[in-house]
Amino acid sequence: xxxxxxxxxxxxxxxxxxxxxxxxxxxxxxxxxxxxAYAVLGHIDMRRLRHGDALANLTQAHHYNPNxxxxxxxLSWAESNLGLAEDAHAHAELSLxxxxxxxxxxxxxxxxxxxxxxxxxxxxxxxxxxxATAMNPAFGGHYxxxxxxxxxxxxxxxxxxxxxxLMQTCPGLLQSRLAGRTYxxxxxxxxxxxxxxxxxxxxxxxxxxxxxxxxxxxxNVLTERxxxxxxxxxxxxxxxxxxxxLxxSEHTVKRHVANILMKLxxxxxxxxxxxxxxxxxx
Length: 282
Description:
By secondary structure, this protein is mainly alpha-helical. The protein is 74% helix and 0% strand. The protein contains 17 helices and no strands.
């Protein structure tokens, strides 16, 4: 499920969600009170825009384990998608209160920013999104929400700069939202979000007005560590083996892989290795 989420868009992430859903359904058969099963099913329902099922499953997960931080964040996100700003804020705030030093605490600030955006409390949305971005500058979701909030307040120039940064960090994400692919269930909310992002994208010109990034352009923004990870993957090493070789956590390696795929605008590891070979990066 997490690997699918890191994929943002593309076929590979959908395959990961399929496998995660199958495993969660099996887990629920074994343990009908497993909060993890309901949480993962709810998250995947949300990704598939099954908003009612998402809210029901995440609410059940929260019932079985009211202190689980990930469930609270996902529940808050699902509530924001449905325009339930007060509930979304309460659950996001609880996630932060229960675990203020969580390793993914930036996600708590992100769902707080999203709830504030839905409530049209733009000053809080921007403040929370700035904090989330500072904590995790590699996550594109923080930038896109910050860009929308800034654009709606009239800070279009800064919104454009954030949008340009987003297109470097996560190629394709902004374009997918401009094409209408959002998680908001309410048409008015989705339209408002899209208008804000259109303003931000327009202000990012000329970067936002150009053609999609090529493999060569994408390769130029890979960090040295990402190139190192890519070379090790090309040699046939698993994520675990790459982590051991570089002294990193496996989660960090997965994040590097996700960033490589996003920057090269490619759907799979194999495609990234092939592109790296063509570009002489190996």
